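Researcher: Let's try something more involved. This one mixes different molecule types, so please make sure each is placed in the same coordinate frame as the others.
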Amino acid sequence: MFFESPGSLLWLALGVPIIIFYILKIRLRRLPVSTVMFWTQVLEEQNPRSIWQRLRHLVSLLLQLAMLALLAFAVADPYFFWEARSARRIVIVIDNSASMNATDVKPTRLAEAKRQAEQWIAGMRHRDEFALVAAGTQPQVIVGFTSRQKTVSSAVQSLATTDGPSQVADAVALARRLLGERQDGKQQEVVVFSDGRFSGVEELSSALAPLSGGREPPGTTDAAATSPISNATSQAPVKLQIIGTRAANVGITQFQVRRSLVDPLGYEILAEVTNASDQPVECRFEVDLNDEPIDVVPLKLDAGGKWSQVFEKTSALGGHLLATLKHDDALAADNTASAVLPRREIQPVLLVTSGNLFLQKVFEVNPLVKLTVVAEAPATVPAGTVVVYHRVAPDKLPAGQVFVIDPANATDLFAIGEQIANPIVTKQDKDSPLMSHVRMDNVLMPEARSLTPTLPEQTLILAEAVTKEPLFFAVNRPEGRVLVLTVNLDKGDLPLRTAFPITVANALHWFAGNKQDLRESLAAGSLATISSSDFAHPAKSASLLLKSPAGELKTLPAIERMTIGPLDHCGVWSIIEDPGSADLGKAIAPKTSDKTPTDEPLLEIACNLASATESDVRPPEELLANSTTASPVLAGLGSRPVWFWLLLTGLVLTTLEWVMYQRRVIS
Amino acid sequence: MLFDGDFLKKLEYLSLISRRVFRGSILAQRRTKQMGGGIEFADHREYTPGDDFRHLDWNVYARHGDLLLKRFQEEEDLHVYFLIDCSRSMGFGNPPKFDLARQVTAALAYIALSNLDRIGIIAYSQEIIADFPLTRGKDRILSLLRFLEKLEPQGTDTNLGRIVNSFALRPQRRGLAVVISDLFDPNGYERGLDLLRHRTYEPHLVQIHDPAEARPQMLGEIELVDAETDSVRKVTITERALREYRKVFDNFQAGVAGYGKKYGLGCTQTTNEVDFEDLILRMMRTAGAVS
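Model: All components are placed in one shared frame. Result:
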């Protein structure tokens, strides 16, 4: 027998004072009585127990010493060699992805997985160590290795549902890395509770073998260590517990919206519905914008069939697009999908020009532009107005958004040089949104002027000639954005090219910032990178809150650029200002869902399941064939640690001593 | 001081009460079993030659023609012996039982002396340790009180039987023997009382005990020290043992009362917490001397 903490045996030294006290106790309290004749008579009646009465003090001492010894040994945590050798280290992997929310197993697959995991945990033996890994959205170690049954059990119960994708393969790899960290001779294994709807299931299923004997539950299948999925530090076997049935499900597997390429007010919706069942189904697909139906499509889908369609719609107001699939099936999360359509704002443009028809018309044709044409620049410009200087630009460009075209004179942002006879664009910034869908390499630009930016560190060259002279550049100054295009519109062929209106549209879009950008709907479980320029309006608070579709709030740092997520629930996520932190430096208010932010959201992001893998909730047939519903063998009383029995014996002895004391003193 | 002026006043009060009502009850002026020159008619017997003609019942002879002689109860002054237990067990209690025993002895003796009876006191423990000889007359009360006051609990082994044996061998007249004791006699109190009865004494018991003896409260591991023998007994006193003890003690008390009842003896059982005058009055009431 070995001891986990042999130093605790020093507690045995307490036996010395117990013996001393026992010896001291022999000197009893003396009490004079008028006669002992009655006591003699009383005690004579108890003569049959006299031997016991003579011994009971000694027995009491022995009991007390035994109790001390048992407690000391219990604290020392003894264990047998065979006990240490048969100990197990098990990682329980529970798939809490979207498909585990299916209700074909009541109440849900995840609840059933938890129940079965609890059975495994109930079979936990002394010196066994369990860990818990969640396999939904992102593999995550919920609880590291612990031998405390209650800890693992409560972690299992607290495992939350997600609408994210299943990451069982990564979770198994993570579990094996966990197991691989320690090698102390314990049996190691990974037990996966999943519906089998994850990537890599084919690799896993190809390595599955039925279990035989042992303590493992018959409903578990074993993946050999040679499986590609076991490409991790540890070679621990994987056991897969299949949860679920081959239930039918129809889901929205695509729902995206984008701006129309031809209509500035228009938008296009791409919707796809997949029938992940073995039977044809009939259902109805509805699209609402701000709770107003904009389209309804009755669907007839064959078994395993798909339907997709692009809807072209128009709206300047924007709002929330909600697609609903009217069909009662196993998984509810994929029966709705949402998207956020930002409002289209009218942009005021002040064109200062002596006259250029192309330039004027390119703005006029844009329905989102409110154009004002003047010959001379006014003294003040309304805030938010894009000022377009053609040829003549003031020496100091005004604050705000400024577009300078074919400048004839120098300004505070650039110096002007000699004419460039026939410059050819040899390099353009393809990554800039200003050059999106624009090609200038074959555009003639006679009489362009050589420009030298005065703020090179804030200047982005969008197009430059072969002589490295900038022809089109942007300056991102604090007072406002500036674009400079040195092209003679009267002599060049740029106005005749499609690049011209696209460049102007890109410029207007750039000036407007990202406010009107249509952010695509994300797949549930994704991360999103946002910056403050994406916000609908500047944030006033020192801190921000991320509001989930369910209304839960999470504090975000108020920094320029951040990554949020994983956004693991379907619906519209919002970034709002923290009403409890209006001033910089003020303490962040506690996160409570009853908080009612006063302003409209700074940013909204739609998340949809949109995953054919998750919508198909049917477990692979070969896995189902190997699965049974038998329960794992529970650990019996014999699985308790030695210290438990020692403590129990000590408790019994304490009770015995207590009874003896009661009989001795109080009867 | 055990016997002070107040005590004497109380004795006088008790003697006044007893003088009016005590006749023929407990003490003094008692009818003896001897027939003779008394005035109270007892019964008839047939005339035999030589009898005193004055005692013939002429009325009966006139009616029936039978010669019957009238017999009368002879009255005599009573001899009262007080056997007071001076064993160390009598020093137990608060106040000690011995104090009450001496007060009761003094009170009864005063009443007897007031009724012109003769009294004697025998103090005993394992043997007779002091003797107040037979005396008569109220003027002897002070010496009696001095005698009682000098007594102290002593002795190691109470044995009433042995005491009575030596007491009864004395050449003295028979009379009332008042035994004042706790009767905690390891050899049994019955033998002594039986001897008294057999020697034609009329025993009267005054048994005194302390409430702590009747209902002890101690619990646990205890060394019990016998007040008389100084013997030590290690006992573990439990609630159950206490219950047993109370049962045994109650049985003992009931045995004493039963003994008195069985043989028609006067028996007074009391605790040491009562006042002696209350006890005397109670004895009188029990005897029907006062209402």
